[in-house]
Design goal:
single chain; mainly alpha
Length: 245
C-alpha cells in the first residue's frame, strides 16, 4: 500500500506508514485523529493539516475538525482558509464562542475591523465575561477611534484580574486622548509599577505631568524613558524642551 504523504510502499493492512508514520488509506477516523495529534505535537503543522483534510472528507460537518483545521490554517498564515472554517462553525453553531473569537482574529488580520467587532460581539453575546474577546473588542474600538467604547471594554478586562496589564496601558492611552488626564496617570502608574522598564509608559506619564504643569515630575518620567530607550526622538525632544525652561 502506497503512502499518500511520502510515497513509500507499505504492507497491506498497515494503518500507518513505516517511513513517515502518516496514516494510510485504510486508516479509520480515530487513527487519523491520532496521526493529526502526533503531527501537531512534533510541529508538523502541514502534515496535521493534510490529515485533518482527510478527516473532513469523512466528517465534513464536524465542528471539532473544522475548528482544528481553522486553528492550524491560522498558525500557518493561511487566514482566508481559517476564516472559511470558523465561518462554517458559527453558521452551524452560533453559540460556539471560540469560533466567533477566532473568526474575529482572522478578520482583524485582514483589516476587516468592523467585521471583527461583529465576531467579538457575537462571542460576548453568549459569554459576556469572555476576557480575550473583551480585550480584542477594546483594541478594535480603540483603533477605530471609538474611545468611550474602548474604555468600556478595557475597564471590564482590567477588573477581571491583575494579569491584563495591556488593558491598563490602553486605558491610559484612551484617557489621554479623551483629555481625562488624572485617570490616564492612574492607569499608566499601574503599568509602571508592574512593568517599570517600559519606556513608552514613562513617556506618556511625562507628557501627562507636563499637561498638568508638574515640570519636575514630567522631567523625571521622561528621563526614565530616555534611559530605557536612548534613541527615541520624541522623548529627547520633550525632555530637552522642559529642561530649557
Amino acid at each position: 500500500m502506497k503512502c499518500p504523504e511520502c510515497g513509500a510502499e507499505n504492507k497491506e493492512g498497515q494503518k500507518f506508514c513505516g517511513n513517515c508514520a502518516g496514516p494510510l488509506g485504510n486508516a479509520g477516523v480515530s487513527d487519523l485523529f491520532e496521526s493529526a495529534f502526533k503531527s501537531e505535537a512534533r510541529g508538523d503543522l502541514a502534515g496535521a493539516l493534510e490529515t485533518y483534510g482527510r478527516l473532513l472528507e469523512k466528517r465534513p460537518q464536524s465542528q471539532e475538525i473544522l475548528f482544528k483545521t481553522g486553528m492550524i490554517c491560522y498558525d500557518l498564515g493561511r487566514i482566508d482558509e481559517a476564516m472559511e472554517n470558523f465561518q462554517k462553525i458559527v453558521e452551524q453553531n452560533p453559540r460556539f464562542i471560540y469560533a466567533h473569537f477566532r473568526l474575529g482574529l482572522c478578520r482583524y488580520q485582514k483589516c476587516m475591523v468592523e467585521e471583527a467587532i461583529q465576531a467579538y460581539s457575537a462571542a460576548l453575546a453568549t459569554a459576556p465575561d469572555f476576557v480575550p474577546a473583551l480585550l480584542q473588542l477594546g483594541l478594535a474600538q480603540f483603533h477605530l477611534g471609538r474611545l468611550e467604547r474602548a474604555v468600556e471594554a478595557f475597564r471590564k478586562v482590567a477588573e477581571s484580574g491583575p494579569s491584563y496589564i495591556i488593558a491598563h496601558y490602553y486605558l491610559g492611552l484612551a484617557y489621554e486622548r479623551l483629555r481625562r488626564t488624572d485617570e490616564a496617570i492612574e492607569q499608566f502608574s499601574i503599568v509602571a509599577k508592574k512593568n517599570p522598564k517600559d519606556p513608552s509608559t514613562h513617556y506618556h506619564l511625562g507628557i501627562l505631568y507636563k499637561r498638568k504643569f508638574m515640570r519636575d515630575a514630567a522631567i523625571g518620567e521622561l528621563m526614565r524613558a530616555h534611559q530605557l530607550d536612548p534613541d527615541d526622538e520624541a522623548t529627547m525632544e520633550e525632555l530637552s524642551s522642559l529642561q530649557q525652561k
